[in-house]
Amino acid sequence: MSHATTYNIAVVGATGAVGQKMLETLEDRNFPINELKLLSSSRSAGKKVMFKGTEYTVEEATPESFEKVDIALFSAGGSVSQKLAPEAVKRGALVIDNTSAYRMDENVPLVVPEVNEDDIKNHKGIIANPNCSTIQMVAALEPIKQHFGMNRIIVSTYQAVSGAGNEAAEELREQSQSFLNGGDLEASILPVKGDEKHYPIAFNALPQIDKFQENGYTFEEMKMINETKKIMHTPALHISATCVRLPLFTSHAESVYVEVEKNDVTVQQLKDLIGKAPGVVLEDDPATQVYPTPLSSAGKRDVFVGRIRKDLDHENGFHLWVVSDNLLKGAAWNSVQIAERVVANQWL
Amino acid sequence: MSHATTYNIAVVGATGAVGQKMLETLEDRNFPINELKLLSSSRSAGKKVMFKGTEYTVEEATPESFEKVDIALFSAGGSVSQKLAPEAVKRGALVIDNTSAYRMDENVPLVVPEVNEDDIKNHKGIIANPNCSTIQMVAALEPIKQHFGMNRIIVSTYQAVSGAGNEAAEELREQSQSFLNGGDLEASILPVKGDEKHYPIAFNALPQIDKFQENGYTFEEMKMINETKKIMHTPALHISATCVRLPLFTSHAESVYVEVEKNDVTVQQLKDLIGKAPGVVLEDDPATQVYPTPLSSAGKRDVFVGRIRKDLDHENGFHLWVVSDNLLKGAAWNSVQIAERVVANQWL
């Protein structure tokens, strides 16, 4: 680092949906940047991007791009991270990787600062940013787990298209307009770019996010299951997920069922905990129709929780509705937040 | 009835979203009609409606409207049913009521023909048609319950706006167009017409369908919980629901978790059962991305099931994705189907 308190930052995938939000977040948070390097695949190299009133030219990411970089924020797909993150580390950079490439690597901390900030200390050059739908759920559930224990989660998700990138958002926009005009719905991106079949997302619901695995679950569902156990340090947690892509541009919502270990826990106790949890906002008053929605949470960094209620049959069971901007807390903000914790604690 | 095999039919709420589908379904099924009477509130009286190439004028429903009617299909709101269904019964009509007015009345059978057709026999003039989201779930789960027992259901729904009527569908259409044009989203119907607050549904998800109850659940959620127990004859069933309104025009989807009583049940056994169940179609092949969606099921009378898989932690737990046209099996078709069973069995 060039001075005591500023850092050379690289953003890999600077023109993507998450990369754009990373730049906005670095700017909003006034992150102490010395030099900023915007990197991408050769396809997007040469594009111009504004940051704090200055125009930057995006360069093609190569191993040499990471010379003198202190922190590299990766969000350009798993294959780019697999190829270039080790090169960045070799050159002394700390990598905060937003892809799934290293998340389950036992040598790589998988971090949601509100949950397991201390895991950052164990990094060996790479810190992984969890999957968007995982992050908001564990941020909401961690205070409950800490106070009352937790042995079971069943989650069904309501996920926005921006999680599949700018092309997917454009597909939703074009299909929606075509549908309203009485036209056909042409699908070439969703549910999964590169998978065999594509289905319309406009005014539809697709129960597939990422590719199917051998066990009949999608990779997105297995990410939620495996990442939650790793982040919360609960390998024995019973957890299952059903992940659904919906015609929303921004913010994922989740219908979450949890069973706590302690008996006689009340809804009010959960509301009190959620209300004072870091990074989490309680929006829960059925009497006045107060609950979070994707539109009400878009553009905000917090995780919003409402509809907290007890299961009618299971004394230790509770239902929650968890909503957050998938590009912010689900991706860009959580990555920048990790970088903030790294520099605040001198864990570089 | 005028001749041995045709019936005088009244449709109450003939201009509504469900009423229109009732007429289409009576026509598609070539229901044996002698005289058809189209009724509505005074607001819609005088409107012209086509049926089998003939124009009918909608009349205001009054107690006298039901003279000589054999079967009256009600779908004009709970207050209309409460006022006029007893008048229809008094005049000798059998009422099939699509509102929530009589569903939990112990003297009124609540019927999904694939599940509890025989309950029709106990009617005292009124048969209730269950809530849309309940119908498709119990149709899919009944064969599983019969063969393997069932002691627990946790469901999260993905529900279309047409369940809230034509005005709600129009609101989604107008908001969607406004959003795509960069305009504001004005909400005056959803989530619940007549409730205090209204929120935009376009590109959003609203975790409220019908009004909130004292216990923090919505009435829609309580309908799913209570109606399922009544239809399946399982008062001790553990069941909870989270109901969410989405920017879909037609068809509800449901992420359903069930626990069966029998041990060692396999996914293949469930697929075999679902595949041969009446009124239910298996669409389930992850390897070729086959699963039902709202758009693929719209306009069809069946219930479609996919994504059947075992819970990874609970030996007796399974997850399913259940989709059906909320205006057909969820309302109009189930009502007409009850009428068909009534006349086939001479249970009038």
From TrEMBL, chains A, B:
Phosphate binds at R103. Gene3D superfamilies: Dihydrodipicolinate Reductase, domain 2, NAD(P)-binding Rossmann-like Domain. GO terms for molecular function: aspartate-semialdehyde dehydrogenase activity. NADP(+) binds at T15, G16, A17, V18, R43, S44, S162, G163, N326. Its EC number is 1.2.1.11. CDD domains: ASADH_C_bac_euk_like, VcASADH2_like_N. Keywords: Amino-acid biosynthesis, Diaminopimelate biosynthesis, Lysine biosynthesis, Methionine biosynthesis, NADP, Oxidoreductase, Threonine biosynthesis. It catalyses: L-aspartate 4-semialdehyde + phosphate + NADP(+) = 4-phospho-L-aspartate + NADPH + H(+). SUPFAM superfamilies: Glyceraldehyde-3-phosphate dehydrogenase-like, C-terminal domain, NAD(P)-binding Rossmann-fold domains. NCBIfam families: asd_B, PRK14874.1. Homodimer. PANTHER family: ASPARTATE-SEMIALDEHYDE DEHYDROGENASE (PTHR46278:SF2), DEHYDROGENASE, PUTATIVE-RELATED (PTHR46278). Belongs to the aspartate-semialdehyde dehydrogenase family. Catalyzes the NADPH-dependent formation of L-aspartate-semialdehyde (L-ASA) by the reductive dephosphorylation of L-aspartyl-4-phosphate. This is Aspartate-semialdehyde dehydrogenase. It comes from Halobacillus shinanisalinarum.
